[in-house]
């Protein structure tokens, strides 16, 4: 996985603060652990302590996918990915309008080898996320989603334009 060209220090600094909301902590740990193995165990520990609510269960599934990334044996990798996808699919079927859960499934599905046959689903989830991004109501996370989509995902021309427009809108708002 590429490292998004993101400045990682603000993530690390925010994580060091005592008053970080648990959901933000899960987001940060997942983002860091996806790119730096040294954050994986601490992130896994934090997410396992999280409540059994849909968004937190989605991050637990995302950490299962990371478990696959860092596992040594191919059979273990396959098992972790299958468990992660099963959980994410179930969460999306029960919470189809949750943009963040769809975004997590898209992030994971987009990175899988083609034999998992998940590319169409990833693109469908990405299109949904772009159309409904404002539902998140969290500008900082919305900007992260847009940065991720514009730098890490091969988008159709139409989605690329929409993401670019949304990024411009957020840049204009933050300049005020």
What does this molecule look like?
The protein has 176 residues and is mainly alpha-helical. It has one domain (9-175): Serine Threonine Protein Phosphatase 5, Tetratricopeptide repeat. It is built from nine helices and no strands.
The pLDDT mean sits at 88
Overall outline: globular
CATH topology: Serine Threonine Protein Phosphatase 5, Tetratricopeptide repeat
**Helix/strand/pairing category:** mainly alpha
- The total domain count is 1
Name the CATH architecture.
Answer: Alpha Horseshoe
Head-to-tail CA distance between termini: 34 Å
Taken in chain order, the helices and strands follow as: HHHHHHHHH
| Rg over C-alpha atoms, rounded to the nearest angstrom | 16 Å
Low-confidence stretches: none
Major sheet size, sense and barrel closure = none
Strand content is under 5%
Count of runs of 4 or more consecutive helical residues:
9
Write down the CATH class: Mainly Alpha
Number of strands: 0
Helix content: over 70%
């Amino acid at each position: 996985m590429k490292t998004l060209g993101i400045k990682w220090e603000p993530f690390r600094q925010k994580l060091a603060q005592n008053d970080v909301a648990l959901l933000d902590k899960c987001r940060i740990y997942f983002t860091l652990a996806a790119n730096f193995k040294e954050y994986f165990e601490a992130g896994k520990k934090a997410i396992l302590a999280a409540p059994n609510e849909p968004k937190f269960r989605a991050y637990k599934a995302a950490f299962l996918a990371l478990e696959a990334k860092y596992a040594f044996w191919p059979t273990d990798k396959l098992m972790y990915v299958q468990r992660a996808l099963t959980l994410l699919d179930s969460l999306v079927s029960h919470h189809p309008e949750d943009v963040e859960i769809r975004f997590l499934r898209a992030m994971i599905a987009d990175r899988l080898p083609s034999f998992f046959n998940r590319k169409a689903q990833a693109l469908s989830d990405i299109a949904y996320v772009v159309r409904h991004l404002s539902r998140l109501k969290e500008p900082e996370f919305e900007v992260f989603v847009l940065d991720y989509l514009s730098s890490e995902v091969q988008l159709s021309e139409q989605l690329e334009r929409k993401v670019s427009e949304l990024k411009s809108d957020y840049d204009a708002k933050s300049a005020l």
